[in-house]
Amino acid sequence: MGKRRNNKQLLTSLSKKQKKHLKEFGEVHPFDDVVSEKSERTQVVELVPSPEHSDAEAEHLDEEEDEPEEKTAYQKLLTTLNRPSGDDHSEEETTDDEEEEDLGVEENSVDKEDGNDDDDDGEEEEEPEDSGVVLTQASESEKVVHEGGEDFIDKEHESQFCLEGNLIGERGQEDIGDVDQDNDMYFQHFGTELSEDDMQKITLGTKPNTQIKWPKMGSLFCTTPLETFGALSSHKDLPAFHKLLETSCSNTKTLNSKEEAEETSAFQFELLALMGTYKDLYYPENCPLKVGSQVRSAYCLHALNHVLKANSLVLTHNAQLREQQQEAKKGAELEHELRDQGLTRPKVLILVPFRGVVLQIIHILISLLESKGKKVVVSNKKRFKDEYGNDSDTKPNRPDDYHAIFLGNVDDHFRMGISIIRNSMRLYAPFYSSDIIIASPLGLRTVLGVEGEFNRDFDFLSSIEMLIVDQADVFLMQNWEHVLHVMKHMNLQPLESHGVDFSRVRMWNLNNLAQHYRQTLVFSSIQDPQISNILSKQCANYRGQVSVKNIPKTGSICQVLVQLPHVFQMFSSDSFINHNARFQYFVDKVLPQYRDSVMSHTLVYIPSYFDYVRLRNYMKKQEMNFASVCEYSSKSEVNRARHFFMNGDKQFMLYTERFHFYKRYVIKGIQNLVFYGLPSFPHFYSEVCNMLAAGGQGEVTSWTCTALYSRFDAHKLSAITGAQRAGQMLHSNKSVHLFITGEDQAS
Questions:
Q1: What is the DSSP string of 423-472?
Q2: pLDDT for the residue 571
Q3: pTM of the entire structure?
Q4: Which of 377-386, 473-482, 606-615 has the lowest mean pLDDT?
Q5: Same domain, 412 and 275
Q6: DSSP character for 433?
Q7: Cα–Cα distances in Å, from 423 out to 173, 341, 548?
Q8: Which of 52, 294, 484, 618 has its CB surrounded by the most CB atoms within 10 Å?
Q9: Residue 226 is part of which domain span?
Q10: Using CA atoms, how far apart are residues 508 and 173, in angstroms rounded to an integer?
Q11: Contact call for residues 480 and 530 (beta carbons, < 8 A)
C-alpha cells in the first residue's frame, strides 16, 4: 500500500503533457526519464528495412507473439542505463505503476475487494498489460450479467436436451417404428422430393383455385400449385398424433376453455384437419373474445405434435446408427443414410405480440404433455413466471375486446427458445438448441439486425418448418415492418455450420428448398391486404394455401346507437399505396366544408400515422386551430388536447387509430366526425360514432359523419356496411352514399 501511495504522489508531480503522453502511449516520454550522469553507449537495434517482407512477417507473427520475454526497442534501451541509487531507484517501476494508476482506476476497486496488491517486482513490466486484460474481462462480465437479467439463456441442461446424445426412451415411447408413415402427413410432406419441373410450376406456373365450404370454418379458398397433391376435399380427417399426445387429444377439456365441449371440438376438429394437411392457412376471423383461446390451443397441439414426431425420428435414428456402428466393427456394411434433420435445430417459430400470450402458450404446451400419473419436468419455470407473469394494470371502462387483447404482461420485446425431450421441457434454451422459438417481431428484429451490423444472426431461422403468426392484426398496430423483416430472413442458407452433421441433413435443406416445405399459419381478426400479402408474396409451400373468406352479412354500422347521418364519399385512386389521391380529395373537397366556425368540434379519425403527420403539417402551415393526439403523445399532451377540444378552444382534433387501439379513451365534445380512412377494425367505427353521445353538446340534428373510401377499401367497407351494400356502393355511378342510424332510438 505504501508503494501505491508513493506512485500517486509521483503521478501528481507530472505535468499535463506528461500525463497525456503516459495515457496515450503507456509510458513516460524518454525525454523525461531520469538517467545516471555516467553516459553509456547507446545500443543500436536493427529494424525491418523494407515493407516488402510484410508477408513473411505475417506468417511468423503468431510465433513472435508467443515468445514470453521478447522486449521492445525502448526496453532494450533502458537495460543499457545504470540505475541510480537512493531516491532515484527503479524509475521504470515507477513509470509502470503510474500507468497502472492512471489507466486502471476501476482496477483499484477490484484489487481492494480481492485484498491483493499485485506489486511483485518481477512482474513490473507486464503489469500494465495484465491490468488492461483484467479490466476488460471485468467489464465484459458485468455486461454479461447485466444482459443476462434481460436475456437469460439456460446452458446447464444442454446435455439433457441434446438430440445427438439421446436415444429412444426405455419404454419405447419415442420409437416410431410402428407408425404408419405412408398415411402420416408429416412423413409424406417432408419425405417428398421436388423435381425441377415441380419447382418451375411453383415459381412460374398458374395456381388453380377451388372453393369448398365446411360447416364451422365456412368458405375455404384453396390454391394448389402442383396438381399431384390435389386440392382440399370436403372429407375431414384429424392428423395422426404422437403417442405422448394421444391421451391429451382424446380429452376435450384440454382443447376448450369456456365454450361448450361439442361446439368447441367441432370447430377445432376442422381447424386441426386443415393444419394437418400442411398447407398454408390464413384465418382472418380469430376474434379474441370468441375463438381466440380455441385457435391458440389448436395450433399449440399441431406444433407440439410436429416437434415430437421430428425429435422421435432423430432419436430413433440415433439408436439405429449406434447399432450400425457396432455391426460395422464386426465387419458388416452400413445401410443407407438416415436424413432426418435440417441445417439448424429450431423447427417452429411462433410470433406473438405480448409476453402474456407466451404465458398462455407455455401453459397449453405443459397441459398437452401431461398424461395420467406423469407430470412434465419444466426447467426455469419460476423465472419464467416472474418475467412473463401478470404485469398489467386492469383499466376499467374499457370494451371486452380490449381486456382480451391486453390480458397479462403487455411487454412487446422478448424472445425465448424451448427444447422438448420426452416429458421434459427446457425454457430459455439457446436458439440453436431449441425446437420452438416464441418471440415478438421486435424481439427478433434486435437479433436479426440489418445489413452491415457486426453482431447480427439469422442462421437459426434457416430450417424453420412451421411459422405461426398469432394476432397478426395487433402487429399492424405495433410495427408491421418488423414482421416483414422477419419474413425476409426466413429459410436462408446459414453462414456457419453450427456443428451440424451434414450426413443427417435432408437433401432439400441442402438444396436451399426449405421455403417450399415450410407451413405458414396466419391468424388475424380482420381481413387486411398487408396480412394476406404475406402468404401471396412470401410463402411458397408446394402443397398450396387455404384462406377462409366468409362474407359479412351485417356491418358494424348496425352497432351505432346515436342518431347520425353517415355520408360515405368515394374518391378515385389508381393504387392501394397511393396516398396522394386521398390527401388531395380531403383538402379540396372535405376540409373546406368544416373550416367554417359553425362546424366546430370536428374530430378527424386517421388510420395511418404517416397520413397523420402529413395532415398535421398541412394544418400548421395553414395556421388552423387544431389539437392532435397520437400514440406518441404524452399523457399531459393528451389531457390538454382533450380539454381544449371539449371546451371549443380547438376547432379540430386529429386522432390516430393506433392511439384509439392502445388507449380507448372516450373523447367528449364531438359534434362532427370525419373518417380520413376507414378503420382497420370494423368495431372501431361504431365505437367512435357512439362517442358523440358522451359529450352532450349541441343538438342531435346538427351532428354529422363523413367517411372517405376508394375501391381498394372493399374489405373494410364490407365489414362496416355489409357485403351487399358495399358491393352496391363500389359499383354505383354515384360517389356519395347516405346512411342514417339511430332513428328508432330517437323516435
A1: TEEEEEE-GGG-SEEEE-HHHHHHHH--TT-SS---GGGTT--EEEE--H
A2: 93
A3: 0.77
A4: 377-386
A5: yes
A6: G
A7: 10, 21, 35
A8: 294
A9: 185-528
A10: 29
A11: yes
